[in-house]
From TrEMBL:
This is F-box domain-containing protein. It comes from Felis catus (Cat). The keyword Lyase does not apply. The keyword Transmembrane does not apply. It holds the Pfam family DUF7885. SUPFAM superfamilies: F-box domain, RNI-like. SMART domains: FBOX, LRR_CC. Residues 277-332 form the F-box domain. The lineage of its organism: Eukaryota, Metazoa, Chordata, Craniata, Vertebrata. The gene is FBXL4. Keywords: Leucine-rich repeat, Ubl conjugation pathway.
Length: 573
């Protein structure tokens, strides 16, 4: 009898045992869940009592619909007990992200996507919450009160934000993840995904969302963390091989956000020696490069360890013209950047959004990387990169002379004086300063020297004193401007709008949502319609003065208009 058949029999029996044990594990888990107790009313020993707690504080987030000086529709509403749940509907006491649907990516201001983005990374926004006590999580419940279904990933962090002692190591672990799915209901629900067990206690939870399939803004009311103070005995389920773990789409998420041991792969020099490289020796160099363009960054690093020929191709700087490191924010650190340096000397597009927080990337590490890899940079994405300081912006202005696209969205920890360095980047065409602390003097300097600007986002920039002065400078200096975001600027008037309309005739997108000082009676909206015929998107959200005449002027003059928001909202600003 051939030795193959006994091996197949053994594998079949092993697979059958796994399925049986998984079934028993599931039954055991259901029994445990049905007998789960709350610490304040527990009949079991304190060792196994469950702690149930609401979020104590919101410590970081990427965007929100609300104002920086208000509580309406802000992420800060996620802290504490529910304000709305179990009621359904649109309530100002909930947390709402800035956008929903696919229209955001169809605006003139939308940026082109990065190549080599892993298909399983689809997060668009995030929010991080802290809790009073560190626990080993057994459940995370999200109270959604309007258009649920945006949450696609939940993570836990080993660092305790309230500890006075800095941790020796910071780890993020995925508790649950799923691709975006359409929820055909807008009513409130208590979202209770089945999370995996982890081997460290946590009081820092991160929710990542994707709102692309939603018909309206999702609204979140509270987050509940269930857990035990003592490390639980891992169930059989966590120690067995899960056949779903072997799926290609999930591989990188099961491997610690796709960057576990990637630093080792960067630096590995042990290549397999073989008699030949198969038929790859016969292929043109350019064809192999084209084939490798379809690999993700971790796969490229793995392939570099197979043979000398493929190592040469995988380390070619031409493979790193577009480098998207955002999907690996949970693991990317100074060591990663150091190993990437030699490969990224020709990088033109670089995405470091969400990376480097909690000490993962230092100012020195970032500076070293840009000094080697910044000369060819055209686009730099740094959204929510809280390691940035004034030195970093100075390095960017000195090392990136060809930079045209800079995104500092939600870098709210940057000091106001840091923005003065941006004025040195005279070739900028796109600048995103949403939710930053830029002040009027620095912004005026930028507008004066960066006359090539085509896209400018100043949404929720609360440190600017007089937006009419800013609008006047934009109209005088930025003649090529195509898109302008003035979301929630509190003091722009019809005078500033007149300067914009006369000085920037190429405008295709203008966001004046939640600008309470604009009044239709002054004729400002009708003037916009007559002087800006190229408008494709116009937001006048929450402006109750918009009248029929304004709509008629828009219909007659702005024939290319595709997106118009005149949502009337009587809620407080």
């Amino acid at each position: 009898m051939s030795p193959v058949f006994p091996m197949l029999t053994v594998l079949t029996m092993f697979y059958y045992i796994c399925l049986r044990r998984r079934a028993r594990t599931a039954t055991r888990g259901e029994m445990m869940n049905s007998h789960r107790t709350i610490e304040s009313n527990s009949r079991t020993s304190p060792l196994h009592a469950e702690v149930v707690q609401y979020a104590k504080e919101v410590v970081d987030f990427s965007s929100h619909y609300g104002s920086e000086n208000s509580m309406s529709y802000t992420m800060w509403n996620l802290a504490g007990v529910p304000n709305v749940f179990p009621s359904s509907g649109d309530f100002t006491q909930t947390a709402v992200f800035r956008t929903y649907g696919t229209w955001w990516d169809q605006c003139p201001s939308a940026s082109l996507p990065f190549k080599r983005t892993p298909p399983n990374f689809q997060s668009q926004d995030y929010v991080e919450l802290t809790f009073e006590q560190q626990v080993y999580p057994t459940a995370v419940h999200v109270l959604e009160t309007y258009h649920p279904g945006a949450v696609i990933r939940i993570l836990a962090c080993s660092a305790n934000p309230y500890s006075p002692i800095p941790p020796a190591e910071v780890r993020w672990e995925i508790l649950w993840s799923e691709r975006p799915t359409k929820v055909n209901a807008s009513q409130a629900r208590q979202f209770k995904p089945c999370i995996k067990q982890i081997n460290f206690p946590t009081n820092l939870i991160r929710l990542e969302v994707n709102s692309s399939l939603l018909d309206y803004y999702t609204e979140l009311d509270a987050v509940v963390l269930h857990g035990t103070k003592d490390k639980p005995v891992l169930s059989l389920k966590t120690s067995l091989i899960d056949m779903n773990d072997l799926e290609d789409d999930d591989y990188e998420e099961k491997d610690g956000c796709g960057m576990d041991s990637l630093n080792k792969k960067f630096s590995s020099t042990a290549l397999r020696e073989g008699p030949n490289n198969g038929y790859f020796d016969k292929l043109p160099y350019e064809l192999i490069q084209l084939i490798l363009n379809h690999l993700t960054l971790p796969d490229l690093c793995r392939l570099a360890q197979t043979c000398k020929l493929l190592n040469q191709h995988c380390c070619d700087p031409l493979q790193y013209i577009h480098l998207n490191l955002q999907p690996y924010w949970a693991k990317l650190n100074d060591t990663s950047l150091e190993f990437l340096q030699s490969r990224c000397t020709l990088v033109q597009w670089l995405n470091l959004s969400w990376t480097g927080n909690r000490g993962f990337i230092s100012v020195a590490g970032f500076s070293r990387f840009l000094k080697v890899c910044g000369s060819e940079l055209v686009r730099l994405e740094l959204s929510c990169s809280h390691f940035l300081n004034e030195t970093c912006l100075e390095i960017i202005s000195e090392m990136c002379p060809n930079l045209q696209d800079l995104n500092l969205s939600s870098c709210d920890k940057l000091p106001p004086q840091a923005f003065n360095h941006i004025a040195k980047l005279c070739g900028l065409r796109r600048l995103v300063l949403y939710r930053t602390k830029i002040e009027q003097t620095a912004l005026l300097s930028i507008l004066n020297f960066c006359s090539e600007l085509q896209h400018l986002s100043l949404g929720s920039c609360v440190m600017i004193e007089d937006y009419d002065v800013i609008a006047s400078m934009i109209g005088a200096k930025c003649k090529k401007l195509r898109t302008l975001d003035l979301w929630r600027c509190k003091n722009i008037t019809e005078n500033g709008i007149a300067e914009l309309a006369s000085g920037c005739p190429l405008l295709e997108e203008l966001d004046l949502g939640w600008c309470p000082t604009l009044q239709s009676s002054t004729g400002c909206f009708a003037r916009l319609a007559r002087q800006l015929p190229n408008l494709q998107k116009l937001f006048l959200t929450a402006n109750r003065s918009v009248c029929d005449t304004d709509i008629e002027e828009l219909a007659c003059n702005c024939t290319r208009l595709r997106q118009l928001d005149i949502l009337d909202d009587s809620s407080p600003f």
